[in-house]
Amino acid sequence: MAHRKIVQLAASIAVALCGAAQAQGIAIDTARGVVELPGQPQKIVVLDAAAADTLEALQAPIAGVPSQLYAGHLQDLQDKAAPVGTLFEPDYEAIAMLAPDLIIAGGRSSARVAALAGIAPAIDMTIWGEDHIGQSLARLRSYGRLTGQEARAEDLEAAFTAKLERARAAVAGRGNAMILMTNGPKVSVYGAGSRFGWLHTALDLPEAVASVDAQTHGEAVSFEFIAAADPDWLIIIDRAAAIGQGNQAAAVTLDNALVAGTTAWRRQQVVYLDAASVYVAGGGIQAMTATLEEVLAGFAAGG
Hints:
Its main location: other. Helices cover 45% and strands 16% of the residues. It is of the alpha/beta class. Strands 5-4-3-6-7 form a five-stranded parallel β-sheet, with helices on both faces. Strands 10-9-8-11-12 form a five-stranded mixed β-sheet. Strands 1-2 form a two-stranded antiparallel sheet. A hairpin with a 2-residue loop joins strand 8 (177-183) and strand 9. Helix 6 (132-147) packs antiparallel against helix 7 (150-171) and helix 7 runs parallel beside helix 15 (285-301). 44% of the residues are buried.
């Protein structure tokens, strides 16, 4: 009899502790500070490609995503989840119909957080600023805690960190680089303080030009500017390709006498990055890992 009472007491304590844990909720670091969520969500709507990338890697329960994520590696997710608008304009009615436990916005959809919060708890997980990798890995850890996938998040972070070290070793002593984004016939340069600047800072890859403005869409430059800078390496991002536009390809835009005279072009030290991974889903753990793989392959193939 006494044994039965002890068992019953232990069970009651366990239930009470479980209830207390649920009552405490889950504290998540967001772009707007720490947010307390009521518990682990069972149905999530994701309105940011980087967040979708990392959550998909964690096998999170994603019920809705924008109708177009642009990133090829997220096509399976897009096929399975319900369409809920675009990266810029959420479909509030479609989201409400899904009755999500949590809505995750960020980047292009971050301005809609207040409106989305009228449907369900909504958080802003934007990744922006010079500490791109630090923020991205912080998001990975937060998502791991949020979904109960802490161990998987640790494995993904460890694999990324190992690849980062390999990429840093691969570019060491290989000269400077210039990051260019083409948009049809237009060209912009991105420096260490830009959205793509982690390719310089995290890899210890010197800039060909150190005074580039850190503008959202890069600093517009001429082919004469590129020729005068004479970079050892060119790292190319084709914006039109990233968002599915049929504009002039980057390789065509840059195929002229001024660019051809640079050290990078002459030595075939030109690295083309998957634009959707670095531009649209930048900050997602899968996208960042894929970008590092492209850097490794590009520097291995270059002169």
